[in-house]
């Protein structure tokens, strides 16, 4: 009986680990005016979470309208655009719920935004702005980055970007 209970506990723990791993797994699709693709048929570049985690990590410590001052870690949006060979002037970022916002690509050079996958050292979960949250250096950007226009660009739950 004890052996059966131990075996059932082991299976339950294994199932929990597998479930938690798959919950944290995500992809980012980038399409539109790009030169480099991983999916030629759909003319898009699909980044796996592992590929994003392997890219250089950058941090921004800032407040948002939804969070206190905290350190966000992630990938420079500039690095993602360079990897796909983006050739547009505007990008549309989409969230898991199909919410979207247009952001000029000129913001990337001006503000060095990141696609954060961590906040306060913890991985972002879907219920907490994940898998990816567009972060501007709001606290260092003066009045411009504290405006309603830029507040609207702090999009979270990002899963797709289209370059225009």
UniProtKB/TrEMBL annotation:
Q: Which residues form a coiled coil?
A: none
Q: Which domain of life is it from?
A: Bacteria
Pfam families in the record, alphabetically? Oxidored_molyb
Q: Which residues form the Oxidoreductase molybdopterin-binding domain?
A: 58-142
User: SUPFAM superfamilies, from UniProt?
Assistant: Oxidoreductase molybdopterin-binding domain
Gene3D superfamilies in UniProt: Oxidoreductase, molybdopterin-binding domain
The protein in question is named: Molybdopterin-dependent oxidoreductase
Q: What is the lineage of its organism?
A: Bacteria, Pseudomonadati, Pseudomonadota, Gammaproteobacteria, Enterobacterales
């Amino acid at each position: 009986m004890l052996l059966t209970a131990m075996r059932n506990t082991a299976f339950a723990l294994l199932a929990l680990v597998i479930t938690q791993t798959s919950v944290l797994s995500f992809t980012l699709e980038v399409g539109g005016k790009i030169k480099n693709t991983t999916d030629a048929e759909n003319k898009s570049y699909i980044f796996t979470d592992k590929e994003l985690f392997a890219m250089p990590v950058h941090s921004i410590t800032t407040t948002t309208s939804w969070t206190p001052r905290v350190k966000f870690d992630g990938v420079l949006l500039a690095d993602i655009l360079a990897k796909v060979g983006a050739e547009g002037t505007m990008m549309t970022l989409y969230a898991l719920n199909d919410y979207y916002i247009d952001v000029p690509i000129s913001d990337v050079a001006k503000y060095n935004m990141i696609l954060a996958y961590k906040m306060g050292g913890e991985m972002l979960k879907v219920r907490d702005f994940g898998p990816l949250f567009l972060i501007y250096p709001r606290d260092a950007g003066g009045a411009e980055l504290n405006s309603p226009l830029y507040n609207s660009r702090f999009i979270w739950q990002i899963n797709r970007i289209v370059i225009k």
